[in-house]
Design a protein that fits this description.
Order of helices and strands: HHHHHHHHEHEHHEHHHHEHHH
Number of domains: 2
Shape: globular
Number of helices: 18
CATH topology of the largest domain: ABC transporter involved in vitamin B12 uptake, BtuC
Structural class: mainly alpha
CATH class of the largest domain: Mainly Alpha
Distance between the termini: 33 Å
Strand content: under 5%
Strand order of the largest sheet: 1-4
């Protein structure tokens, strides 16, 4: 039987009969409209794209358009904006906060918020510095304990929220205050503990793979992995008699990703003064790939989306909602503490200000600007990457043209508000179109 035409018996689609079946009467085949779109070629895809936009399904379109506009505007203002040094700075400064934003994406998928992530980052940096520098612990053991301290703090938040019933906003706000005090107490009267020269934490944001093969190799690996994921998904869908991407679409998508990946690798490698591939970017991408796999390919990820979409329905389906919520906040705390080590690396050591200032707002803004809904149940892990690149690109561009910090904050705030407005309008449009 062809995938393009199935009888009502094989598809099980209700309403596929024109009337009651009678002996000798052959039922008309029912064709999946998504396959008809692909049969029409480019025109079909354009029609489908217009239908999705009108229905409020914008996906990553707004943030991608925003990135293109940002690049054009700042490159016009300063022709060094897309230089190797500038791109490397955006990548390095995006990494630590971006890793923290990945944890926030999972929390937002639940329809909740974590206001403690900045303080957890500060505690993680303080734990590492006190153990390694003040007490002489092995640096890898100190890093492990620092990251696990974030896990413990996240479990505390999740327990009070999921088991006691305290709103997540209140629990994490209390954590924001309490863990800030803990960080200050741990640092004592010193106020700051410098990063040891040549240590693993120092290398987090200061080490670059100068061999050109590293950047191009990573780009090639990313393209091959993306192509493999598309092919595997296509094969599985065809085996299940579901609509699948044609080979032409797979090739086109892979080509677009290849152009983007190799363009970034070229910029990081080839121009004069290029330092190569930053270690920070490699670690950030590794976290993104693992987190994306967990969110889309595991039972835990599906339970997170189910709880975020409708907690009561998830509970009736047999999902332990409390356990999922605790696990998500534990994940947020873990990635928050790990991100704190990147911040300490950038600032030259652990200080009482690590995780303070606008850290919390930037992390949440990155997740939302990247396309994760504040209303729960909708978003992608890669939102953290897209949103953080938008924020850091704006800051980098404004710094290069000498704009004051106050203006940077106002522009970032406006971008965040625009992202939330787009999300709200999109959800309303989807409800009107019967898609939400």
């Amino acid at each position: 039987m062809s995938d393009l035409a199935k009888t009502p018996e094989s598809s099980g689609a209700p309403g596929a009969f024109d009337g009651p079946e009678t002996p000798g009467r052959q039922t008309a085949p029912a064709t999946d409209p998504r396959l008809l779109v692909r049969e029409k070629g480019l025109k079909g895809y354009w029609t489908e794209f217009g239908r999705k936009v009108r229905g409020g399904d914008l996906g990553s379109l707004p943030v991608l358009v925003g990135l293109i506009v940002i690049a054009i505007v700042f490159q016009f203002q300063n022709d060094n904006f897309l230089s190797a040094g500038s791109v490397a700075n955006i990548a390095v400064y995006s990494s630590g906060l971006g890793i923290m934003a990945v944890g926030i994406v999972f929390v937002l998928l639940l329809g909740e918020i974590d206001l403690s992530v900045g303080s957890v980052a500060g505690v993680g940096a303080a734990v590492w510095a006190v153990l390694q520098v003040n007490h002489g612990w092995n640096e890898w053991l100190a890093i492990l304990v620092a990251v696990l301290s974030g896990t413990v703090l996240g479990v505390v938040h999740g327990f009070f929220f999921a088991r006691i019933g305290v709103p997540a906003f209140v629990v994490t706000l209390a954590g924001f205050l309490g863990w800030s005090g803990l960080q200050d107490w741990m640092m004592g009267g010193e106020g700051s503990i410098n990063t040891p020269s040549g240590s693993a934490v120092e290398n987090l944001t200061n080490y670059f793979f100068e061999d050109k093969a590293a950047a191009y190799g990573l780009a090639l690996a990313a393209v091959l992995a993306y192509a493999a994921s598309l092919l595997v998904d296509t094969r599985r869908r065809r085996a299940a008699a579901l609509p699948a991407r044609p080979t032409g679409e797979v090739v086109l998508r892979t080509g677009v990703v290849a152009i983007a990946c190799f363009a970034v690798a070229y910029v990081l490698n080839e121009p004069a003064g290029a330092r190569g591939l930053p270690l920070a970017l490699v670690l950030f991408l590794a976290v993104l790939v693992v987190a994306d796999f967990v969110a889309r390919r595991t039972g835990f990820g599906r339970r997170v989306f189910a709880v975020g979409g409708n907690p009561e329905a998830a509970r009736r389906a047999g999902i332990d909602v409390g356990r999922v919520r605790i696990a998500v906040f534990a994940l947020s705390g873990t990635l928050g503490a790990f991100g704190g080590l990147f911040i300490a690396s950038l600032s030259g050591g652990a200080t009482k200000s690590v995780g303070g200032g606008n850290t919390l707002m930037l992390v949440i803004a990155a997740a939302v600007i990247g396309g994760t809904s504040l209303f729960g149940g909708r978003g992608k892990v890669w939102s953290a990457l897209l949103g953080m690149i938008v924020i850091q690109s704006i800051q980098q561009g404004l710094n290069m043209i000498g704009m004051a910090n106050a203006i940077q904050y106002m522009i970032t705030g406006a971008v965040l508000l625009a992202a939330v407005v787009i999300d709200s309008v999109s959800r309303r449009t989807q409800r009107t179109a019967g898609r939400a």
